[in-house]
Amino acid sequence: MVLLVPELTFLTGLSDLRKNSRMLKEVMWEMIQSPQQHYQRLTSLLRRIRDSPDASRELERWGLLLDTDIYRTQGHILPVERINLRHRSFLPAEELGWHREVTKEVPIAVISINSWLLIYPKRLQHLAKDLLAAMRSSCGAMGMQVGQPTVQELRDDRIETYVRAIQSSLGSQDKVQLLLCIIPGGRDDVYGAIKKLCCVQSPVPSQVINAQSLTGHPGKIRSVVQKVLLQINCKLGGQLWGVDIPL
């Protein structure tokens, strides 16, 4: 047993952050500030320390002196890397992302999904239908083929139900390329059980999708499904993109 003195402890982290959208936005705003904003806040803090008599006396007592500006050094900007797909190559935009290109072009190596399992609880059957439709509409542009899955609809979303259904389905199929599960939001226990089963006990590539990510407008669902297809292609041995690496 570890006993902590309350007066000497500090609360860290944020509990139930995902349920508080306002607080989540504030945290994200703090995290994604530009370098210029970081610089302004740091120099503002240095000025406040300099202008505070108490802070100055404390620093002097320790024999410390803070500069009024952060350290400056000479930097070197590397040239932008060219991203290679199967039929074309391109330079990334200023934000250095290329999600749009890889979801509309054929990757270097594509694995077709012919033998796969789709498992979900009965109450999420509408999301499973939307997921399948979005996968079929998105896979063509990426050069992937998605066949009809073997569907297992569960009566509830308990861990034992998922585990038994997966074990039964894997045992009755000769060659399974992929197991795709839809789980209710906030069920990390179900996610952990599925991954343990598919990574340790009955090894098979697996993709677990949170039901919350499949709710919303069609554009959001399509974007999620495109990312899922890219992940699946990698897990099955495909290659999304490459860069030139000269000797």
TrEMBL record:
<dbReference type="InterPro" id="IPR012337">
    <property type="entry name" value="RNaseH-like_sf"/>
</dbReference>
<dbReference type="GO" id="GO:0003676">
    <property type="term" value="F:nucleic acid binding"/>
</dbReference>
<protein>
    <submittedName>
        <fullName>PIWL2 protein</fullName>
    </submittedName>
</protein>
<feature type="domain" description="Piwi">
    <location>
        <begin position="178"/>
        <end position="247"/>
    </location>
</feature>
<dbReference type="InterPro" id="IPR003165">
    <property type="entry name" value="Piwi"/>
</dbReference>
<dbReference type="Pfam" id="PF02171">
    <property type="entry name" value="Piwi"/>
</dbReference>
